[in-house]
Design brief:
Elements lengths: L1 H52 L13 E4 L2 E8 L3 E5 L26 E5 L4 E11 L5 E10 L12 E10 L3 E9 L24 E11 L2 E8 L16 H4 L4 E9 L6 E18 L2 E17 L3 E11 L12 E5 L5 E5 L1 E11 L7
Antiparallel strand pairs: 1-2, 2-5, 3-4, 5-6, 6-7, 7-8, 8-9, 9-10, 10-11, 11-12, 12-13, 13-14, 14-17, 15-16
């Protein structure tokens, strides 16, 4: 009898212990689950705090602009908004596009005439077109560009747009053929000062004009040639017959350049180039009706690491007003003896050199 009582008592103890263990395990599980949920919430808050405190990462310089595609063709848009403020303590040739300062002789009344202008005309918008390969053109790939800004006259609140580039190009493995408006072949470098007038008529030649252009590159050597419109920049009409003298010659100007570049991008380059153009008038000046523009020149560039480079150009030529040389003058009609008028082709030499440096900025 006693043995049965003790057995029953032991069975009750074991059962009670099992129930207690099960309830404790369940309690521990609930506590672990609560701690895990709290840990997840704390991690999410910590990540959100880190993202708010972390500096914004700059946009990738190599990231391509977004494209709109249709079949094998695509268009990528680009551009920027720019506002320029210009202050002069003496009167320039033009407030927004100054090329030189006017004479301050007291007789002109322009001594120390200040001016201030503000404009967004150099705001730029463009699109790059990429197209399919064309079997009939030797599987050449089509591409193109249209780029405009607003530096083309008009009232300040009604600025007129202008074409900077508008061309279509077919490219092969080593060569390309371009038709449309783009920069001249000659004088390919751009000084980093005077970002609008580019030291025109002060040593730097070249502008933009309609042209047919061929480019061939093999290794370190690049060859370019173009036939372009003479009179696209200065619109010279010496005899005032309503026809630009470059178009009256019925000939394009011819440009050519041979360049040598380093295998590493923008480390060094050197090039030699030349041009020849023609103007013709209906009226004879000094017994002549046909006049020639010509130039030969060279360009160079040398980089010192990623933050500094020196570049420049030098040239000699005559009658280069349409190519931003010879102080903007191509041919000048002037009186001579016996009441005759002669046209003088102004000969000039020009050069410039620029040191471009970007300081290193340390952020604490």
């Amino acid at each position: 009898m006693r043995r049965g009582i003790w057995a029953t008592f032991l069975s009750l103890l074991v059962a009670a212990s099992a129930v207690a263990d099960d309830s404790e395990v369940a309690s521990l599980r609930d506590r672990v689950a609560a701690l895990e949920a709290q840990n997840i919430a704390m991690r999410a808050e910590l990540d959100a705090l880190k993202s708010r405190l972390a500096p914004a990462s700059p946009p990738s310089a190599t990231a391509p602009p977004p494209q709109v595609r249709a079949g094998e063709s695509g268009v990528a848009f680009y551009g920027f908004v720019r506002v320029d403020a210009i202050y002069d303590d003496s009167r320039p040739s033009a407030f927004q596009t100054p090329l030189f300062i006017l004479s301050e002789d007291e007789r002109t009344g322009l001594r120390d005439n200040e001016d201030l202008t503000l404009h967004p005309r150099l705001t730029r918008f463009g699109m790059n077109y990429t197209g399919p390969q064309v079997p009939r053109l030797g599987n050449g790939s089509l591409s193109g560009k249209i780029e405009i800004d607003f530096q083309n006259g008009g009232r300040e609140s009604r600025a007129i747009s202008r074409f900077r580039h508008a061309f279509l190009q077919t490219s092969w493995k080593r060569g390309s053929l371009l038709l449309g408006q783009t920069t001249d072949v000659i004088s390919p470098l751009l000084p980093n000062v005077n970002a609008d007038t580019l030291m025109w008529n002060a040593g730097n030649l070249g502008d933009r004009r309609p042209q047919v252009r061929y480019r061939y590159k093999s290794g370190l050597v690049t060859f370019e040639s173009a036939a372009g419109l003479t009179g696209a920049v200065d619109e010279l009409d010496l005899d005032s017959d309503g026809v630009r003298d470059g178009e009256a010659s019925a000939l394009p100007n011819l440009q050519m350049r041979v360049g040598f570049d380093s295998s590493s991008k923008d480390f060094w380059s050197i090039g030699m180039w030349g041009l020849r153009g023609w103007q013709q008038t209906n009226k004879a000046f000094g017994g002549e009706r046909r006049f020639v523009s010509s130039a030969v020149g060279a360009d160079y560039k040398l980089a010192f690491g990623k933050r500094a480079r020196v570049q420049g150009e030098a040239w000699m030529g005559e009658a280069l007003g349409d190519f931003r040389g010879c102080i903007g003058r191509a041919l000048t009609a002037r009186p001579a003896k016996r009441s005759r008028v002669v046209a003088v082709a102004r000969g000039r030499v020009g050069r410039y050199a620029v040191l471009h440096a970007v300081p290193r900025i340390h952020r604490g």
